Amino acid sequence: MPRPAGGVHGGDPQGVIAGAVLETIQVSSYTYLRLKSRSGELWAAVPRTDIAVGTHAELRDAALMRSFRSDSLDRTFDEIYFGVLAQPKATPTAASAAASALPAAPHQHGSAAKADVGKVPPAQGDNARTVAQIFAQRTELAGKRVRLRAQVVKVVGGVLGRNWLHLQDGSGTAEQRDHDLVATTQAEVTVGQTVLVEALVVIDKDLGSGYRYSVLLEDATVTPEP
């Protein structure tokens, strides 16, 4: 475990951090958790485990690290707690209730968003990929940022504090279920727009309530094109 910078802040004297799981990110050795605690939202990391969004989580022996950089996520956390996950308690939260509004992953409910999208000119750059390539290379792309040019075919707004976009670029097929990607973003876009997306690739994302994404693009910056 990384060496902590300073003591525990925001927990009790025993270093216990507790809250509802709003988001999980899996990397090779750790599971990152975004928690809603009594004092607000915070990030924590525990040895890799499976825990669903909506679960009440408790971290024992929590230690605070400031300005912690995760090379796996290519991201720096202003503050993050490292600890050991105690036995979780399955407690419904607003996050799990909100999951029912999430867009279906391509393998759910029989299909992804239906649209007739022609071939979209691919993005340029070393990290540029098509939708089908992201599915095919999901394992090696996990935790990395990719660039994608695609058309927005469906938007579900304001779920878990983000907008959820279905993106297609004419690559892949409905039969192989590698033609439609879901991305989360704060950007406001409309169906039919062609957009340039840069986002973090997250795989096997389980949001609870049966919503599991084999590939998900998170924290996307989205630039509409003329």
Summarize this structure briefly.
The chain has 226 residues and is mainly beta. It has helices at 94-98, 131-136, 138-141; strands at 17-26, 30-37, 40-47, 56-70, 75-85, 145-159, 162-168, 181-185, 194-206, 212-224. The chain is elongated, with a radius of gyration of 18 Å.
Q: How would you explain this protein's 3D organization?
A:
This protein is mainly β and 226 residues long. It has 2 domains: 17-91; 100-224, Nucleic acid-binding proteins (OB fold (Dihydrolipoamide Acetyltransferase, E2P)). The chain has 3 helices and 10 strands. It has helices at 94-98, 131-136, 138-141; strands spanning 17-26, 30-37, 40-47, 56-70, 75-85, 145-159, 162-168, 181-185, 194-206, 212-224. It has a 5-stranded mixed β-barrel. Strands 6-7-8-10-9 form a 5-stranded mixed barrel. Strand 6 (145-159) and strand 7 (162-168) form a beta hairpin. The longest helix is centred in the middle third of the chain and has 6 residues, at 131-136. It is elongated. Residues 1-14, 88-101 and 107-111 have low confidence and may be disordered.
Total domains: 2
What overall form do the CA principal axes indicate?
elongated
In percent, how helical is the residue content?
under 10%
Average per-residue pLDDT, rounded, comes to 81
The counted number of beta strands is 10
